[in-house]
Amino acid sequence: MKVILMYWILSLAALQSYAQARKEIFFADVTIYVEKGKYYLTGSQAGGRGPQGFAFLESKDLKTWAVPAMATDSLGMILTKGDHTFGTKGFWAPQIFSEKGTYYLTYTADEQTVLAQSKSLLGPYRQKEVRPIDGSEKNIDSYIFKDTDGKYYLYSVRFDKGNYLYVAEFDLKTGTIKAETLKRCFNQTEPWEATPNYQSAPIMEGPTVIKLSNKYYLFYSANHFQNIDYAIGYAVADSPYGPWIKYKNNPIIHRSIVGENGSGHGDLFEGIDKQLYYVYHIHNSSEKVGPRRTRIVPVVKQWDKKAGIYQFSVKGDAVIVPVMAEK
Question: Is the pLDDT of residue 327 over 80?
């Protein structure tokens, strides 16, 4: 009888664990936009989970999510393939920002960076002229940063026997870069950026840039996304173009810190509670990479008086597992 009871308890625990996993959110290359007391999550969707493009989920607490009540369709799609948008496949790595009453969505499709816009946060995001930002060569993982002087900069990944981060001044009105300003941010230089668990060409991707006290902080992911050591670090500079100095204690998000493999490619944001967070994805399990799961972790920002910069770390014991609300 005790054996049967123990088996029943273990089976129940397994079922509960499975049910929890079933409710988890499977967005990769994720970002969160905050507005009017709510969080809006989007990212690369796993294949077969809806039309190609991007969908929104909404939350008030970062833990429980649902399709926005005011969404334009039941799936929460904010940008859809073929609806006045560039791209036929590979819809990855979205980022949302707003300027003067217009919302902008930058993303990757067909290994090109793209900019679409909408008058509503919930979309649909479309293009007046269907085209990529810079079709001269392949570039992915776009992040548009607005400096305090009003200038915009496009950070993205370009291919050169590997994935390297580049920056260029960006003209929001024309949706194009100023090609003469294009510059590589840095090379692969640190052991954590190239661990032997998955052999690949150099890969640095998934940029996010913020400015604090006249210093620029570039957060990025390194290693191949299939590597269990896919991880996040950051570098600091006095200019949007660099030169960049990598943080000596990188990575700040890694499986050794957050406890799950493949922790990378996300975005930094300030919560409604004024706490900094980083949203990212992890591998599906220790046995397989996809579909990748979404995670959120609180970020600690500390002023280093001697160095004159902020230092960042995360609360690896406080990782949030976002789930879908019960219907």
Answer: no
